[in-house]
Amino acid sequence: MATHVSRRQLLRIGGGVVVAGAAAGLGLLTARGSQATNQLAALVPSELPLPARFAVPLPRPAQRSGGEISLVQRYAEQEILPGRRTRVTGYDGMFPGPTIRARRGAPVRVRVQNDLDIGTVMHLHGGRMAPEHDGYPTDVLLPHSGRVRASLMPGNTTIGARSYVYPMDQRAATLWYHDHAMDFTGPNVYAGLAGFCILTDAEEEALGLPSGQRDVELMLADRSFTSDAQFKYPALAPDQSVPGVEPLYLAGVLGDVMLVNGAPWPVHEVSRNLHRLRWLNGSNARNYRLELAPGGTFIQIGSDGGLLEKPATRNSIVLSPGERMDTVVDFSQYPVGALVTVRNTLGAGPMDAVMQFRVVRDAHEDARVPDTLSEIQWLRREDAVRTRDFIFALQFGGGHGHGAGQARGGGFIPHQWTINGRPFDTETDWATPKYGDVEIWRFSAVAAHPVHVHLAHMQVLSRSSGPPRPSDAGLKDTVDLGPMESCEVIARFDGFRGRYVMHCHNLEHEDMAMMANFTVV
Fold this sequence. Notes:
Blueprint: H1 7-10, E1 29-32, E2 35-38, E3 42-43, E4 63-65, E5 68-78, E6 86-91, E7 97-103, E8 108-114, E9 122-125, E10 141-142, E11 158-159, E12 161-166, E13 173-179, H2 185-190, E14 194-200, H3 202-205, E15 215-223, E16 253-254, E17 257-260, E18 263-264, E19 267-271, E20 274-281, E21 288-293, E22 298-303, E23 306-314, E24 316-319, E25 324-330, E26 339-344, E27 353-361, E28 386-396, E29 415-419, E30 438-445, E31 449-453, E32 459-463, E33 478-481, E34 485-492, E35 498-504, H4 507-511, E36 515-520
């Protein structure tokens, strides 16, 4: 039986941290059913009428494949709200960026060119690669001019363009790439710097799962808009001359327009057969619980780290920021003409729905979901050589450190999200696992945090609030940690030696220093 961090420890580390509800005006922590929900994040209200739901077709991202891929980060205008133009900060000027299609064992070199006026970092979320290609938050790519509007944390900077090398030596999975620049991940991703990377292999291709136009990637991203249809992000300095968000949004930014692949509440026409739907929560801070109306089920076939061993039928699926869920929906359970709405039962008002499917035709079934999907090499608790504790909390009273304050010279910081009472510091390791070792990491928190660990693929062993959730199935790189909860994960640290990070994937928390180094030695 695991020993969990006590509530007293959660509420008190390092000389004064958050007590639940103490962040004035930021809301409450609640739990709905088995899924913890962080209601501390605050809504940014749009300044224009919200668009009609289920009125625009679902866009499909552009596709890129091959061993050499070039992406240009640039500003562009895109029709997101019908009849209006929004400036996006995108890979190839698109939001989402192009989907990278790759095959296991075939390395991909992605050359990224920065034609912006801000520094960027590209991280392949869920990928396993050498640390110099992982997207460490201070390994910044500067524009060709070498000048940016913000004072950035010192690191291994490159000017103009750089290449990231991804070995793709891992299980087939739905990955995604996004900006990871220290202090500015939140606004950069919100503005559009994100896209899919879909990795396949021979094992997956032999299963007979839906493919081609019936294999659909779906990026969920809530956004709000100004009166002139621009993204409305509550930055302290919209020109990024300093990092941070307005005080009301310290716990996260919520939008009131539901975007799927960059379109508001889209509709997608389907035939009456199996469709593979790859869900990604690309939001800064919003959680989703997805259900089908007027009824129906999802067949979960995969998680962050690839296929499950066996398919699992779900009445709902839950996604915290950064998580992916690979599902199949059998649309033969609906008649031609049916409208199937994907509802978000964690949302209210306009955010209580995500998108709609319109069943338009009968079709021959040429795909299947086999009873056995894959084999996972499970780790046992007794395989672990050590257990480490990591406590995620908000520290009041200021201090000196990196993260949200370092870009301003490491001065006084009134509030910081911390791990083990310490804000992010590029010079410190929170853990040094030995190459090949298996370790148990126990995450604990007062508030809710989606915890993302680079390099490692984790198994969820236990939760203090009860058994592992359905969303914990399979291999994970992001684990949704509920309020007043501890969660144990187990992972083997191999593949590469070097320095990586773990952090909260609520992007406002990440930007305000809730990040920690670990070095595989």
